[in-house]
Amino acid sequence: MKPQKKICFLVNIDWFYISHREALADMFIKEGFKVSVIAGKSKENKLANMTTFESKSRIPTLFGLFEILKIILFKERKSIFIVVSPVMIFSFHFFLFFKKFAYYNFSGFGFIRSLSLKRQSLLFSLMNYMPIHGNRIMVVQNKHDYNFLKNKITSKKIQIRLIPGSGYENNSNSITSFNSNLTLGFVGRVRKDKGILTLIKAVNELKKANYILDLVIWGEIDYEGGHQFTNKELDFLNKNKLYFRGSSSSKPQIYSSFDVFCLPSSGEGLSKAAIEASSFGKPLILSDVPGNSDMINKNGFLFKYNDVNDLKSKILILNSMNIDEIKSLSIEAKQNYIDNWSLKSISRLWIDSINKDII
């Protein structure tokens, strides 16, 4: 009888694992894997299979790094590691170079893109020449990030794979319906790089021009992670607070409140909110940036990032469509979710990879 394979997720903050990886981990358990988690400690309730370490601003402290090393060396010595987020990936690569195998699971390249080209070059040179004792597989979520790493990674011990997202399972039986007046929706952390200012300005300008439409925003301003808004921009958001619905744990409540999902962000790995919206049959309007551009296939429109006029033009196209045309986009959105982003399809890709890589 073969010993049970054990997977350990190493994540910079506990709530991110709960919101973005726990469902995938549950699928591993159903397939007979044992799953544990090492995560940075926040105010979230700790899970039974989770060991936490000290972190500050989603980055492990020096004591936190010591805790991670101790847990890995003594408690998770035989585990297959799935390391999530750039800060944890780079920490693992340089401090745990003696480990024989690991997956590096990038959610997005926001942190890497924020570095200067010189610093990016230095970072990847160090990764390529680090004398790791085994193999590493970098798993990215979109074609842009895949091609980016293909140009940066030269080490023969590092492979690159594309798995589109972490999967989402929609157990709702709700039927997709549409409002008489077009309503746009945004779901997620409210940050400047998510393009929320562009979205509100576009809707306000169209309403001022007597177009009948509405906007709902689900989510809170990200004070913990750094929202990046100036005081003047926070005042602007406050003046438009009627659009904000706060938070809800009910996905049907969120996604039944609008007709079209809009994400004007500066870049994504692969938007979980866009995947969720697609599972409810919502057409998409996304900024034409890495991650988002992979998601449009007869199910919506792309617009130029930070371009209010281009966003307005795409909204007006949807606003001019009849109900049958909107329903056609809705059907395509749901099919894209089923074929590419469902929890079932994503977990199958991961499990097949693990069974192939770990003999």
How would you describe what is shown here?
With 359 residues, this protein is an alpha/beta fold. It contains 14 helices and 15 strands. The strands form three sheets. Strands 3-2-1-6-7-8-9 form a seven-stranded parallel β-sheet. The protein has a six-stranded parallel β-sheet with strand order 12-11-10-13-14-15, with helices on both faces. It is globular, with a radius of gyration of 21 Å. The mean pLDDT is 92.
Properties at a glance:
about 350 residues, alpha/beta, 7-stranded parallel sheet
Give the DSSP E fraction (strand runs of 2 or more residues): 15-25%
Termini separation: 14 Å
Number of beta strands: 15
Sheet with the most strands, sense and barrel status: 7 strands, parallel
The stretches of 5 or more residues where confidence is low (pLDDT under 50) are none
- Report strand order across the widest sheet: 3-2-1-6-7-8-9
The helix-strand sequence is EHHEEEEHEHEHHEHEEHEHEHEHEEHHH
Approximate shape:
globular
